[in-house]
Design brief:
Strand order of the largest sheet: 16-17-18-19-20
Number of helices: 15
CATH class of the largest domain: Alpha Beta
Keywords: Peroxisome
CATH superfamily of the largest domain: ANL, N-terminal domain
CATH architecture of the largest domain: 3-Layer(aba) Sandwich
Structural class: alpha/beta
Strand content: 25-35%
Main location: other
GO molecular function, one term: long-chain fatty acid-CoA ligase activity
Largest sheet: 5 strands, mixed
GO cellular component, one term: peroxisome
Number of domains: 4
Protein name: Luciferase
Length: about 600
């Protein structure tokens, strides 16, 4: 490291700047944990003398700071009166990590503790078994999907949502981790479900009565995988049931068939598109796989689509900005599949530089609209040519519906590209359902072999969203510009009605994020005495930068029509979003409106 204050000197002395209160040596890791009287903690490598990492946690006045190495979990835990930190990195080398960058006020005791989840054993077994392959054909993926027949991809949800999902899917088996066991068991009980729980746990810890341990199930040798070959499956059979984001009510179970998945993977094999190269003895694409596997983007595109081409996936149990940036530098990643919050991070984080993009050849962003200014911020930091594409897809469409393509000239970064193979698009008046002329905005309909079979046990919702000729109503407003591609303007039910005029929140959010003092932004419509509704903005400031409500209002007013002006501004620390990065406007209205 460049700073010699972080290297053990030849005389055996290292300057900590503050008095050291304790040392803890761990022989199996050959590291020393150093604790100072101001609560600082450092991890010191014994051989090199390098400080591997330092803690941002600090003890309050009169408080204490503790350090403990848990051998069973292979993790270091650090805590003080304001927070808890824990980490092992993706190579299994134990380092210190802080989950909180600054202490939270004592008035928020229910928000104090945040711990990164341990990478589950099931997760590691799946990926480790798959990485060595150089290439597997689509037929191999078909065999893989047999393991997931009727797999209910519940993901991360509260007890109320889990009960709802369990009730409509009636699972027979529920695989989870210790951190989620309590909410899962209570949700199963509330839903009167008899599903068996399999716990992905640390083998040194006991499991509750009646619960199976994943490691024992996986290593029992009792599984006869040959039985799978005797199970007859048709392409139209349901392979898995992920859940939609639920922005228009309770999450809906989406029936994805084997044919849907295979078609989604085949789309990624188009010769002219911009997706992964097939691995060979000389080359293998490397992808940081942080997208949740319960989300269709992470499952079909991130996992199955990339394994079908022999890519290496560097998995993350839970997204951490510091870990993600570290992976970009140390793993020589070639592909980045991201969502808008990560795109904003890559473009605006002060620590990101050209070194993070040294091996990256292609970036694709999906799941929510991304402004051209955010794309340009990334490309400026990379300081080298990188293919950047945006795509459109939904849980209900299994895979991508549109994407920009490699080598496209004069790319408009506000566009989502052109239809993928076998995908048809149509735009209709949201009130009448009649087609609108090309180039005119309307609700986007999509027809493709990747479109879902139905909403699980919800024929009413299925009928409302599927046309008689097989088009799925996306609920997204947009238009197609010949020679350029698809433009998504907003969700139908998210439009703000100002004096009878429609205002798209995404447009104002993109504009607000171009302000140098704005880290992130969200806009909703709030009741207005004269206008009916008016835009209200929620702003996360960039660290150390100041901006007032009036300055932001003037900034927007100088660039938009009068009826689009921001009526109110609220500065917040966090904007609620789904795992894929979509802004939860309903939550904003509940919390702040």
């Amino acid at each position: 490291m460049g700073d010699d204050s972080l290297i053990l000197r030849e005389d055996g002395y290292i300057r900590m700047n503050f008095p050291v209160t304790s040392l803890t040596y761990h022989s199996n890791l050959n590291i020393i944990l150093v604790k100072t009287d101001v609560g600082g903690v450092h991890v010191l490598d014994v051989n090199s003398g390098v400080i591997l990492q330092s803690s941002c946690l600090s003890a309050d006045d009169g408080g204490t700071l503790g350090v403990e190495y848990a051998a069973g979990a292979d993790r270091v835990f650090v805590w003080d009166s304001s927070g808890v930190g824990a980490r092992t990195d993706y190579n299994g080398v134990l380092l210190l990590h802080t989950a909180l960058q600054r202490p939270l006020p004592s008035s928020q005791p229910d928000k104090i503790i945040r711990i990164e989840l341990v990478l589950s054993e099931a997760y590691k077994h799946t990926i480790n078994a798959s990485i060595p392959c150089k290439q597997c054909d689509v037929a191999s993926i078909a065999s893989l999907t047999r393991f997931y027949n009727k797999n209910i991809l519940l993901g991360q949800g509260c007890r109320f949502e889990l009960k709802h999902q369990i009730t409509i899917t009636e699972p027979k088996l529920f695989v989870t981790i210790p951190e989620c066991y309590d909410i899962v068991s209570k949700s199963l009980k509330a839903a009167n479900s008899q599903a068996k729980i399999v716990l992905v746990d640390n083998v040194s810890k006991p499991v509750p009565d009646g619960v199976a341990r994943y490691s024992e199930v996986a290593e029992s040798g009792e599984a006869d995988f040959g039985l799978l070959d005797k199970v007859e499956r048709k392409g139209d059979d349901v392979a898995c049931i992920p859940f939609s984001s639920g922005t228009t009510g309770l999450p809906k179970g989406v029936e994805i068939t084997y044919d849907n998945i295979l078609a989604g993977i085949e789309i990624m094999h188009q010769k002219e598109n911009c997706f992964p190269h097939v691995a060979n003895s000389d080359f293998q694409d490397i992808l940081p796989a942080f997208l949740p596997f319960f989300h269709i983007y992470g499952l079909v595109i991130g996992l199955m689509g990339h394994l079908s081409k022999g890519c290496k996936l560097v998995t993350m149990a839970k997204f951490s900005a510091s870990m993600y940036l570290d992976i970009l530098k140390t793993q020589k990643t070639t592909l980045l599949y991201i969502v808008p919050p990560v795109a904003i991070l890559l473009g605006k984080h002060p620590d990101v530089n050209e070194a993070h993009y040294r091996s990256v050849r292609h970036i694709i962003c999906g799941a929510a609209p991304l402004a051209a200014s955010d794309v340009e911020a990334i490309l400026q930091k990379s300081k080298r040519p990188i293919e950047f594409n945006q795509g459109f897809g939904m849980t209900e469409t299994t895979s991508l519906g549109t994407s920009t393509f490699k080598g496209t000239k004069n790319v408009d970064f506000n566009a989502c590209g052109v239809p993928m193979a076998s995908v048809q698009l149509m735009f209709a008046d949201p009130l009448t359902g009649k087609p609108v002329p090309v180039g005119q905005s309307g609700e986007m309909y999509i027809k493709s072999p990747t479109v879902m079979k139905a909403y699980h046990k919800n024929p009413k919702a299925t009928e409302e969203t599927m046309t008689k000729d097989g088009f799925f109503k996306t609920g997204d407003m947009g238009y197609f510009k010949p020679g350029v591609g698809l433009f998504i303007t907003d969700r139908i039910k998210e439009l703000i009605k100002v004096k009878g005029m429609q205002v798209a929140p995404a447009e104002l959010e993109s504009l607000l994020r171009t302000h140098p003092a704005v880290q992130d932004a969200a806009v909703i419509g709030v009741p207005h005495e004269f206008y009916g509704e008016a835009p209200k903005a929620f702003i996360i400031r960039k660290n150390g930068l100041k901006i007032t409500e009036e300055e932001l209002q003037d900034f927007v007013a100088s660039k938009v029509a009068v009826y689009k002006k921001i009526e109110e501004v609220m500065f917040v620390d966090e904007i609620p979003k789904t795992a894929s990065g979509k802004i939860l406007r309903k939550e904003l209205k509940k919390m702040y409106a």
